[in-house]
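User: Can you help me understand a structure? I only have the sequence.
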Amino acid sequence: MMADAPGFQLGVIGALVLSVTSSVAIVICNKALISSLGFPFATTLTSWHLMVTFCTLHVAQRFNFFEPKSVDMKTVMLFGVLNGVSIGFLNLSLGFNSIGFYQMTKLAIIPFTVLLETIFLKKQFSKNIKLSLLVLLMGVGIASITDLQLNLLGSILSVLAIATTCVGQIMTNTIQKKLNISSTQLLYQSAPFQAAILFVSGPLVDQCLTKQNVFAYKYSPLVLIFIVLSCLIAVSVNFSTFLVIGKTSPVTYQVLGHLKTCLILAFGYTLLHDPFTERNIIGICVAILGMGLYSYFCTHENKKKQSNELPLASQIKDKESAPLMGHHEKENQEVKKSNGVTTKESLL
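Assistant: Let's start by predicting it. Here is the structure, written out as C-alpha cells:
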C-alpha cells in the first residue's frame, strides 16, 4: 500500500494541475467569446462541450485508449440528467441574481456538501478542516462578492442549483468508488445524457436569459473558431473534473474551484486590466491561506490515518495466522508421537 502512495500522490497532483489550467483556459476563451464576440448562449455552448467530449472519448475508446465498463443504465441516466440539470440551474441562478448573490451560491456548495456527506455518508470532518474551509470561504467572499440583491425566483433557483450540484458531485465520487469505475469510463457513460438534457433545454434557458435565439444568431468565422477551441478545452475540463472528484472528494474539488476563482480574478487584473482593489488582494490572500491550511490538514490527517491502519492490518494478519500456526504445531507433535511408537515397535 505504501509503495503505491507516491504514484497515487503524483496522479492527484497531475489531476489538480490539469483541472486548474484547463478551467482557467476555458474561462479566458469563453470570456472572449461571450464578452468580446457577443455570443451569450452559455448553456447551449455547454451542451456542445459535452457532445464533443463524448465523441472524443468514443474515438479514444475505439483506439483502445481505455476499456469501457458497463454500468447500470438507470444509475448512469439519473447521474447524467442530474449533472445536466445542475448546470442549467447554475446558469439560471447567474441570470436571475446579482453577481454577488451568485458568488454566495457557489460558496454555499462547500458547507452544504459537508452537511450532506456528514448526514448520509457518515463522513467525519475534523475541527481543523472545518476551520480551514471557513477561512477559505471568508477569503473568496471578500475577494469576489460585491452586492447581495435578493429576489424570490433567484433565491429558489440558487437553492436548486446548490442541491443538484452537491448531489451530483457526491454521486461522482461515490459511483467511481462503489462500482470500481474510472473517471474516464464514468464520463463516457454519462456524457450523452448530460449533453441531451442540455441540448434540449439549453436554447430555452439561453433565450430566457438573453432574449435572443441561438438558431437566429449570425456565426462569423472568428466566433466559430472560438466555439471549436472552447469545445476542445472543455474535453480536458470535463475529464479533469471527474478525475479530481474520483481521486479526492467533492469538498476538495470545490476548494480547487475557489482557487480557480482567485486565479481568474488575478488574471483579469494582470492581463485584462479589470478593476482591482485592496479588498480583492486581501480576499485572495486570505483564500490562499485557507487553501494552504486545508491542504496541510488533509495531508496530515491522511498520514495519521495510514499510520493507524498499518498496526491494525498487522494485528488482523497475526490473528489470522495464529490458528494456522497452532494447527501446524499440533500436526508436528502427532508426527513426533507416531514416529516414537514406530521406533519402539521396530525395536521390539
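Now, to help you interpret it: The CA atoms of residues 328 and 334 lie 10 Å apart. Residues 334-348 have pLDDT under 50 and may be disordered. Let me know which part you'd like to focus on.
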